[in-house]
Amino acid sequence: MDCHQYAAMHSRREFLSRSAMGLGALGLSSLLNPLSAATKGAASDVASVSLPHFAPQAKRIIYLFQSGAPSQMDLFDHKPLLQKMYGQELPPSVRQGQRLTGMTAGQTSFPLAGTLFDFQRYGESQAWMSELVPHQAAIADELCFIHSMHTEAINHDPAITFIQTGSQFPGRPSMGSWIDYGLGSMNENLPAFIVLVTKGKGGQPLYARLWGNGFLPSQHQGVQFRAGKDPVLYLTNPEGIDQNHRGEQLDFLRQLQEHQFDKLRDPEIEARIAQYEMAFRMQSSVPEVTDTRGEPEHIYDLYGPDSRIPGTYAANCLLARRLAEKGVRFIQLYHRGWDQHDNLPSGIARQCRETDQASAALITDLKQRGMLDDTLVIWGGEFGRTNYSQGQLSNTNYGRDHHPKCFSLWMAGAGVKKGFAYGKTDDFSYNVVENPVHVHDFQATIMHLLGINHEQFTFKFQGRRYRLTDVHGNVVKDILA
To answer: How far apart are CA 178 and CA 221, in angstroms?
Structure first.
């Protein structure tokens, strides 16, 4: 926060404390416009006053993050030449001396491994898609594929940190936190940024900093909802404490913190007050939104049998739709297990059985409710996989190493073209040859769809103005509807 923001916050509080109407006026405004009071009252929301920069096409985002990096040439990037050259060496002219991870750098052979799965064209768009994703194939005309994504990060932790925060190094705000900070909430009783992680899945670790607020005020961090009796830790009242007691405790705590603020002028104190108040409201809103037992049978059938089991990917997709209906601004799902260095055919088939139907169902469900027009859905991982086999190649088995030079993801819904494919890789799915899309371009495009100019949306921290896209990034205008 710069000196002008600090001064504005300070003077506002002085005015309220000395005004004849004082906090009574603020109380009246909260009755007349409770959402505005809830989202703009905290000191951190100075940025929200001038955002969005222009009319947004998307009101909310549901990001289906497939942690571990799905193999592009086994799912969406059809490469017949790889099939013909199965087992042959990767040509040096294709690799071009590019760096490898420590897991395959010592290999003396790099045998090409075309996918073992059949590809066909689907829909009027004639999109090439694998037999592994029949449900997504059925909605191919709703999807906007980007086949030319690329990143600098070659290992999981920096790569996932990069695509989620705009930097390979920990400490920056996550995308959801930026969006929460800039646009605020659409529901005063739920956080603007909610995270759902598939339970019981092994794979690359997921750290809370991936949905952390970084240097932004702390009320903008993502709130993780868990499966089970207590979706949010420590939210329910302990035995012997009822809602009235909790309210009295909150009032007294607020008085103490306001007294502390008057002495220290630390804006994080006000952020903490906002968090306590949100937690109090969530005591009633969270049990309501997470209880899916009232959903009709045809909705459970749409998402698949796993949707009845809390914490599964399917159940989280259904919950994401319910959260979107309640006005949650940014909903992030994480599904681990895509890091298939060996036994990829069996591993990726299992992953697709867990995710394919529910991913497609979410699009269908949003569309039938008229919500897809203002909801952006994203599906993808942190980088791609190699076209050569890591370790031994056989006629029925192979593994794939990390590959940052190209990967595929898809988007659907608000503001993006339907049944469209953008970008192209070479015949080996190794290098981008047409319309490259960098991670910062991807982030800039998401911001644009929300009505934000990514170059103008900054936060001053330790003498420097930071933004999600760091120092570069261009909106991919060709995919915009």
So the answer is: 9
